[in-house]
Amino acid sequence: MNPVPRPDVRGWLAAALRDRVAGPDAEERALRIWHAPGPRRFEPTDPVCRVHGHAAMYSGGLRALLLQMLHPLAMAGVGGHSGYRGDPWGRLQRTSEFIAVTTFATMEDADAMIARIRRIHDHVSGQAPDGRPYDANDPHLLRWVHIAEIDSFLTSYQRHAKVPLTAAEADEYVRQAAWTGEALGIPRAPQTVAELQEALESYRPELALTAAARDAADFLLREPPLPAIARPGYWMLAAGAVDMLPDYARSLFGRTVHGLPGRLGDRLVLRPLGRVGTAAVSWALADPREVRNVPGSSAVVDGAG
User: Fold this and answer.
1) What single DSSP character describes residue 228?
2) Is the pTM of this model over 0.90?
3) Between 192 and which of 71, 116, 171, 270 could a Cys-Cys bridge form, CB atoms 3.0 to 4.6 Å apart?
4) How far apart are the first and last CA of the chain?
5) HSE of 9, CA atoms in CB hemisphere, 13 A
6) Rg (Cα) of the chain, in Å, rounded?
7) Out of 22-31, 122-131, 287-296, which region has the weakest mean confidence (pLDDT)?
8) CB–CB of 258/218 below 8 Å?
9) Rounded to an integer, what distance in angstroms lies between the CA atom of residue 212 and that of residue 17?
10) What does the pLDDT look like over 97-110, one tens digit per residue?
C-alpha cells in the first residue's frame, strides 16, 4: 500500500503569507527584487537587511500601523485615501513591496519606487475631522510615519531575533533606514537609536485616539478579513504587536487593544503568543523553496528566537 502523502504545511503557510502580504504575483516580483542583476544599496549582512528580512517584520508592521494611527492627521490621510476597509490587503501589499524594493532591490528599482511614492503623495491631501489640513508631503507627517515604522521594526527584531543587533548595529540600522525617509522628503531623519527615541517623544503631545483610529484598530485587531482557519495565527502576531507598543500608546488605545478575542488582551499572555506566531512565520519563510532563499538571493532570513 502506498503511503498517504503528508500535507505540505510549510508550503501552504508560506504560500498563504505570500498571497496576503505580497499579493498573488509575489513570486514574480520576488524574482525581480532579489535576483535581478544590478548594484544594490545594501549588503545582505547589513543591519537594515537583517531586520527587514526577518519574520519579526509581521508583528512589527502591525505595531507600526497601530502607532501611526494615533496621529490624527496621519490617520485622516489613511482613512481618506488608503481604503483600509475596502482593500486592507492591497494597502499591506503596497507597503510590503515598498520596504522590500527599497531594501533589497537594485538601486535603479529602489529609486524608481521612491519616485512612484512621491507622485502618489502629490495627490494625498485633505482636511481632518477637526478641520486641520493634512498633506502627505508634509515633512512633519512623513517624519512621524517613518519613525513609527523604524522603531517598530527594530523593536520587533530585537524581541524576536536569535541574535539581536548590538547597540552599534542598531544605530547603523537607524542610519541605513533613514535614506528612504529622506528620499521621500524628510529634511533629516534620525541617525541613531537615541535620536529616534527623542523624535518619538517629541510627537507625544500630538497623539490622540480619534474615532477613525479606534475604528481602524478594531478592524485590525478584532475583525481582520481572514478565513476562520487563519485568524488564530494572525491574532498571535497581533498580540505580539500590542505587547510591544509603548506604554503611552497602550494607554491612549485603552480598551481597544484589550479587545483581542478571548483573553488575548491580557498582557501576561501577549508576549508568549507573539513569540509563537513569529516563530511559525519564521519557519514558513525559511522554506528552501522560497524564491528569496535560493542561492544568489540578496535576502537574509534569520530565525526567530
Assistant:
1) G
2) no
3) 171
4) 41
5) 5
6) 19
7) 287-296
8) no
9) 27
10) 899 999 999 999 99
